[in-house]
Amino acid sequence: MKKILNDPYRYVDEMLAGLTAAHPQYYVLVGDDRRVVARADGPVDGKVGLVSGGGSGHLPIFTGYIGPGLLDACAIGDVFASPSVDQVADAMRAADGGAGVLSVYGNYGGDVMNFDMAAEMLEFEDIDTATVLLRDDVASAAPEEAERRRGVAGMVYAFKIAGAAADTRADLAEVTRLAQKAADACRSVGAALTPCVVPQAGVPTFEIGDDEMEMGMGIHGEPGMWRGALRTADEIANEMVDRLLDDKPVEAGAPVSPLVNSLGATPPEELYILYRVVANRLEEAGAEIVMPLVGRYATSMEMTGVSLTFCHLDEELAPLLQAPAACAFWRV
Amino acid sequence: MKKILNDPYRYVDEMLAGLTAAHPQYYVLVGDDRRVVARADGPVDGKVGLVSGGGSGHLPIFTGYIGPGLLDACAIGDVFASPSVDQVADAMRAADGGAGVLSVYGNYGGDVMNFDMAAEMLEFEDIDTATVLLRDDVASAAPEEAERRRGVAGMVYAFKIAGAAADTRADLAEVTRLAQKAADACRSVGAALTPCVVPQAGVPTFEIGDDEMEMGMGIHGEPGMWRGALRTADEIANEMVDRLLDDKPVEAGAPVSPLVNSLGATPPEELYILYRVVANRLEEAGAEIVMPLVGRYATSMEMTGVSLTFCHLDEELAPLLQAPAACAFWRV
Amino acid sequence: MTTQLTAETLSRAIGRLAPHLESVAAELNQADARIGDGDLGITMTKGARELRAVAGELPDDLGAALMTCARAFTKGGGSSYGTLLATGLMTAAKACRGKSTVDWTAVSGLLDAAVVAMADRGGASLGDKTVLDTIDATARALVDLDDPAAMTEAALAATEDTLDRFRDRPNRVGRARMFAEKSIGLHDPGMLAFREILCGLR
Amino acid sequence: MTTQLTAETLSRAIGRLAPHLESVAAELNQADARIGDGDLGITMTKGARELRAVAGELPDDLGAALMTCARAFTKGGGSSYGTLLATGLMTAAKACRGKSTVDWTAVSGLLDAAVVAMADRGGASLGDKTVLDTIDATARALVDLDDPAAMTEAALAATEDTLDRFRDRPNRVGRARMFAEKSIGLHDPGMLAFREILCGLR
Ligand SMILES: Nc1ncnc2c1ncn2[C@@H]1O[C@H](COP(=O)(O)OP(=O)(O)O)[C@@H](O)[C@H]1O
Ligand SMILES: Nc1ncnc2c1ncn2[C@@H]1O[C@H](COP(=O)(O)OP(=O)(O)O)[C@@H](O)[C@H]1O
Ligand SMILES: [Mg+2]
Ligand SMILES: [Mg+2]
Ligand SMILES: [Mg+2]
Ligand SMILES: [Mg+2]
After folding, report:
1. Global confidence as pTM
2. pLDDT of C147-191, one tens digit each?
């Protein structure tokens, strides 16, 4: 968990400076305190603006997913910390192309307050707003309390599908309906093997034994369902599939997109070892696998671990998922 | 350095099974012992076939870069171990579209022997072959001994440019000339912060103190130029730029593509912090920055560290670098 | 003793409050670190700095002045506490819009309205062991009071009492919910920060 | 004692060689682990297994038979040593093509040609402390000998002598070059493996 950085308090600002310098065709820094990134060619006239945001340290989430067919702007907090109300409001303004703004982000208390408050400010400026929260982490609350669940890698699907919907020039209500449908279609579970270090804190987010893993741990180190000896790849994959299908079974013949995601340090080699099992299990369950994703889509810096997401599709969502989109981290 | 796996001796086979299952549009397993991956829609009739290969554990290198505008086939050894002569020969056969086969790979003793021997076998089958070796790692030998240098992330540029050249249906000699020109245009240097674990060995590839880094270390843990206290991002970036420009200065106004590459665990956030300095320095040196790459292009599984590559372009190479190409890990 | 709350009162209060908040920042960070992310002192310091910047030029309209103070907590940081304070201040701002003076006796009602808005914003209820419980207790304690000095003392007494009553209960919202067990026996950091605000107003 | 080298001789030699190589695999792994990647025993075991598989059905043509043996070392693993052995065997195969017998006195020349081909393949020179030095010494020792048992003993003596002469020199090629300093005082693993091949032929 060694980090290459300068001043920890400048970590996010320097990161954003580099990100926008490297990919000026996608990203541009806006706003007073340079914590808002917007689409370089935005806002797009007459298109619903899509906004996300939250704490840094999860690239490509959130900022990475700005681009055609994806998000229009993001407000970026310090590592694992919410952006300010003013930053969120600036992101909303930057995304507004005259057809209203939809915020799509993960269900974390601080973010929810700040996005809600920013939305109220925007209403004063006569900009329509709507919100879709991701609550895909099945490990973060029981099914009866699904409203309290946190949002994790399912965000990727919601961004993609909402982005494609907005690209059709559907109105705010329709884009919101489709984004909500995508959010509702996702289930995720993660497992952590090693922690990461928040630059300003300088210490690991949690402690864990050399031979241990924690199933269900959240992307900021939120406690999971069990901690125990590191299991084999096949055992881990099978348990994750079980947990996701228990929470939302596959309908026979239904299209499902699986995302085998690295939390950061875990290399793609290991993700592919896991993917074998995931694909077999989905096929056994009768699913039709559509656009499987394997890689680093939602991370926690140098954390070791993986998450698995299933996005349960239908005739409406599948084409939106597969519609063209581009950003510096992903091309469809 | 915890790993998610099953039997360490099945690591590569399971990885390839997952990789080809996840991306059947790009990759297909061929050959007796399933250690050769070829382009799903290959071989391409009348196109020079491009082959690479070497030890596993470096995704996307090598196998990941198979696809339109890139490689046609790869022979894949165990982690950090050369593929066998027969596997290399199988890869060459799979790539052959009747216009000959060019092998592009890194200068590692075992690989060179096996590719050379396989090429001899192919000659018996009346298939023309040629070879371009990458020797971009300036840390691995002094300029006077540049022939002994190892190949690292510069491979990405050679694959891309050779792939684009082959796509123009240039003949074997011309594709070889351009690939060699691309290889000669690259200079790289790496720095490691933590080691990785070769699955079959089960122990870290080297030991290093909690507050130490090693400048110039090779991607398999080959010793570097100095080991000492971890420096700041800006110090690391400046030293790397100095070393690369000392070895091959920028000509004023010349196009250069920089690649800030993670060796695995180092997150993109840190790469972007480094990129700021790299971009500034290149501009100061009078270079025109073309298609900067920031991400995980050539890795050593879960190793922490970064490498910097400069590819010195001209009117001939720049368009080839920017020509369309696609694989599961990269789209241009 | 028939003074009233004005923008001038606010401006002078900031002069006492800001340095006090800065002086207790480390303590608040520590309290937050035990069951949260340890940034509450930073939040209060940033807020204090923003307040100082606007203290000299508060508009006479009390609503506008309170809105300016609210904005001091939506800039810079995105912490829950800052947003909640801003929510409470904005609610008061709306109620005071168009007035340049307000009776001290109105303060209790303003706090009540703030609690409602803050509960709405954060989804917490009274009893969840958050800053809401101290503000609510303060609102109760201030009913019909009209002497600012006495009001501050009454508020502090109510706050101390609330801190004590809640110490051995678990936190039920925010980051601290993750550490519900651990939070038993510890003061809620947001309540402590509210006490320091009152101390700063003394 | 006027026997000759035939495919039959090879086949019987494999019968003795394969189990011996398997029995010393752990030692060879260890020797390689000290200054390399520790897989030399695995390479020899894999080679032995492939040789066993073909021993029963070697073609009568000595060239073809040697080529079959060479292929045993290009399958499965991609180790330097396997490829070098295969290179040497293939060189001999080419020289013996079309013959079903070869005089024992020709062996020295076959080894000479193998060394040249292997040096060409791997870019090493004599004196770099590799298997080449032992093969070259063996070729010298076998000049004009025609009794297979005496030849094996002469080869072993030359190899032991070469191992001793090189022990205190640094490795100059292959993986071990990285550890040149460390390799001083240690036997080169490839030389040791060559000694075990000779022991297995006894
Ligand atoms: N949803 C909420 N409703 C009411 N009060 C809350 C809520 N969330 C946090 N708080 C209060 O804020 C305090 C923590 O503030 P802060 O450190 O800013 O949180 P964070 O760092 O998690 O954003 C808590 O002790 C609690 O009093
Ligand atoms: N380029 C070379 N030329 C000659 N001999 C070599 C060469 N490389 C390796 N060897 C020999 O092979 C031995 C190591 O073999 P092996 O373990 O298969 O190497 P690796 O595991 O690095 O592929 C060395 O001890 C040396 O005798
Ligand atoms: Mg906090
Ligand atoms: Mg916080
Ligand atoms: Mg070896
Ligand atoms: Mg080896």
Report:
1. 0.93
2. 999 999 999 999 999 999 999 999 888 766 666 778 899 999 999
Whether B211 and B89 map to the same domain: the answer is no
- Ligand 3 geometric centre to CA of B137 (Å): 46
Cα(A319)–Cα(B144) distance, rounded to whole angstroms? 57
Domain-located, residue D82: yes
Residue B264's SS3 state is strand
Q: Which of residues 170-209 of B touch A (CB under 8 A)?
A: 193-194
Residue D45 lies in a domain: yes
**CATH code of the domain covering residue B171:** 3.40.50.10440
Q: Which residues line ligand 1 (CB under 6 A)?
A: A 109-110; C 32, 36-37, 39-40, 43, 79-81, 84, 122-124, 130-132, 173-176, 188-191
Of A2, A270, A292, the CB nearest to B4: A270
Cα dist from A85 to A93, A122, A132, whole Å: 12, 11, 17
Catalytic residue among A35, A47, A135, A220: A220
Q: Are residues A199 and A171 in the same domain?
A: no
- The ipTM is 0.91
Nearest protein Cα to ligand 2, atom 24: D190
Are B273 and A16 within 8 A, CB to CB?
no
Report the pLDDT averaged over residues B86-114: 96
Radius of gyration for the alpha carbons in chain B, expressed in angstroms and rounded: 19
Q: Based on the fold, state whether residues B229 and B313 are members of the same structural domain.
A: yes
Q: Are residues A262 and A172 in the same domain?
A: no
Distance CA B68, CA A34 (A): 39
Ligand nearest to the CA of D192: 2
In a domain, D192, yes or no: yes
Query: Could B84 and D38 be called an inter-chain contact, meaning their C-beta atoms sit closer than 8 Å?
Result: no
**Is residue B3 a part of any domain in this protein?**
no
Domain containing A104: what range? 8-184+323-331
Candidates A82, A88, A70, A79; CA nearest to A31 is A88
